[in-house]
Automatic annotation (TrEMBL):
Binds 1 Mo-molybdopterin (Mo-MPT) cofactor per subunit. Belongs to the MsrP family. Part of the MsrPQ system that repairs oxidized periplasmic proteins containing methionine sulfoxide residues (Met-O), using respiratory chain electrons. Thus protects these proteins from oxidative-stress damage caused by reactive species of oxygen and chlorine generated by the host defense mechanisms. MsrPQ is essential for the maintenance of envelope integrity under bleach stress, rescuing a wide series of structurally unrelated periplasmic proteins from methionine oxidation. InterPro entries: MsrP (IPR022867), OxRdtase_Mopterin-bd_dom (IPR000572), OxRdtase_Mopterin-bd_sf (IPR036374). It comes from Bisgaard Taxon 45. Its EC number is 1.8.5.-. Pfam families: Oxidored_molyb. This is Protein-methionine-sulfoxide reductase catalytic subunit MsrP.
Length: 319
């Protein structure tokens, strides 16, 4: 099986992250943290097969190889380098796992995630997945629409936003314990959507990919997938969902509001302060020479389905 190395992708963030690791942690041989994927592929055998309705892939998207999806990740709770999650996330225990839904709801509830997977039938959705650092993947996510879960708790008419929170467990998530290893973020990780975004049928709570349950580094056992937004909005390993009347403060927006807005819609016309978002490199099976940059699509290619959600917003201001 092909192993991803530095020649497969060369986005700008690799330089900044490698320099940050070397300067702040003083690690010997920090370059060795860049992906070899043997560890990730060895651990995938522990993932369980899922029963789901298979997507017919109407857009005929070419899938990113599975070993790269489970081996090249952003999950700062397990380190800022893309290979660190696959290396360290095996310490995360995903059974049992409960998900609390509360706030502006008529029926606050706590769900056992594995029972929830039986209660809400699963389907596969093949989505583009775009990272803010100008790389992208195409992933066959398995899950259920978030709106189906929210219907169970009956949102009140004061529910304008949905806040998500990741597990806080410094003993199994070293990035939450070590300031530098975790990118200097404030934990637990928090993200949010408007109610309209949360209720949109494209918005998934994913419990698997490639026919099996999620690997820990991909956000097991349950994570958010919003395909028209940048990857940092797609919060992993969720333990709590809170419906709110006011817009929540989210982790990356709190850390760097000039770089990471609350909405975080894929928009080629709004650059990150340190690089352009006008083009992207799709992570595929080949090396650098076989993967050409391509123009970034507005709303990551889902403009027809979601642009109406933002018709009254200036997307350069509300980025």
């Amino acid at each position: 099986m092909h192993k991803l190395n530095e020649n497969d992708v060369t986005p700008e963030h690799i330089f900044f992250e490698r320099r940050k690791i070397i300067q702040s942690m003083g690690l010997m041989g920090a370059a060795s943290l860049l992906p070899g994927f043997a560890l990730a592929t060895e651990k995938q055998d522990s993932r369980q097969a899922l029963d789901f309705v298979k997507d017919h892939n109407p857009q005929s998207l070419l899938l990113t190889p599975e070993n790269k999806v489970i081996g090249y990740n952003n999950f700062y709770e397990f380190g800022v380098d893309k290979a660190s999650p696959a290396k360290y996330a095996s310490a995360l225990k995903t059974e049992p796992w409960t998900l609390r839904v509360e706030g502006e709801v008529e029926k606050p509830m706590t769900f056992d995630v594995h029972q929830l997977m039986q209660q809400l039938p699963l389907e596969e959705r093949i989505y583009r997945f775009r990272c803010v650092e100008a790389w992208s993947m195409v992933i066959p996510w398995i899950g259920f629409e978030l709106n189906k879960l929210l219907a169970l708790v009956q949102p009140t008419n004061q529910a304008n936003y949905v806040e998500f929170e990741t597990l806080y467990d410094p003993d199994s998530m070293p990035g939450q314990k070590n300031h530098f290893f975790g990118g200097g973020l404030i934990y637990p990780y928090v993200e949010g959507l408007t109610m309209a975004e949360a209720m949109h049928p494209l918005t998934l709570l994913s419990v698997g990919l490639y026919g099996k349950t999620l690997a820990p580094q991909n956000g097991a056992p349950i994570r958010l997938v919003v395909p028209w937004k940048y990857g940092f909005k797609n919060i992993k390993s969720i333990v709590k969902i809170t419906l709110k009347s006011a817009q929540p403060m989210t982790t990356w927006h709190q850390a760097a509001p000039q770089e990471y807005g609350f909405y975080a819609n894929v928009n080629p016309e709004v650059d990150h302060p340190r690089w352009s978002q006008a083009s992207e490199r799709v992570i595929g099976s080949g090396g650098l020479l076989s993967v050409k940059r391509q123009p970034t699509l507005m709303f990551n290619g889902y403009a027809e389905q979601v642009a109406h959600l933002y018709q009254d917003l200036d997307l350069r201001t509300y980025f």
